[in-house]
Amino acid sequence: MAIKTLNRDPLAFVLVKYFLLVIILLFLLFPLYWVLITSFKTNMEAYRYPPTFFPHEPAATSFIKLFSEHNQFFVYYRNNLIVSTSVAVLCCVFATFSGYSMARFKNRWGRMFFAILLVSQMFPVISRMISLYVILGRIGIINTLGGLIFALLAAQVPFCIILMASFFANIPTEIEEAAFVDGAGRWMILFRIVTPLVKSGLLAVGIYAFLMTWDDYLHAATLIQADNLRTLSVGIALRYLGELSYDWSLVNAISIIGTIPVVLIFFFFQKYMIKGLVAGAVKG
User: Fold this and answer.
1) Cα–Cα dist 50/79, whole Å
2) What are 13-24's pLDDT values in tens digits?
3) Domains of the chain (ranges plus CATH)?
4) Minimal CA–CA distance to 152: which of 72, 109, 208?
């Protein structure tokens, strides 16, 4: 009986492969490294040429200055958290109901609704800002966090619905039929049986909506004029970036603090998000 031997890659090929991966990783992480070290430099050293790749005298002056003198930054931070969390929760709610109906009630109206959702993703955000501003102005919610939440919800929810519909489509209908036989109603089936089976997808939808809203600039810059209602990206651009000179150490310290929620989300929920996105990618 012939013994099959496993084909192993040559050592040189393995070394070259890992070398390229390290180079790519360093290339991707270098901007984050530069932001971090610049936040610990003095502003004079941040402008030095040639630049220094490590602070000569590392100091947390920018962070101390941020926490002691710039209270408005935390107003922007709070607004960003409120808007991002609200949009994420509402996206999960709308995506659950709409995605389930699209996956289970297949008819002409469902296909038309699905086509409308796809078409809505083909237009750039800037193309709908004028009409969005007019609509929100007529309702009377311009320059409010509620109006900004509704605008961002309208931008994020179509993709979230499409994503959740794929998760619900993966759930066998036999499970629901068995529950119907046992006397369960449609609402009980949705909340007690089906939704727990797609919780990874629901988490992926929530994380996606939160991250996309956290980095939004165009909606907030267009719909919010009051300084105490601005979100983080707009507040930083208008308050901390001057016309002639920047306090780069302070700006980078703000950037580090601003990325903390995103980093924590990826650190704790990365495997669930990847699992959810992959699980909903294929039907059957």
Assistant:
1) 38
2) 888 888 999 999
3) 72-279 (1.10.3720.10)
4) 208
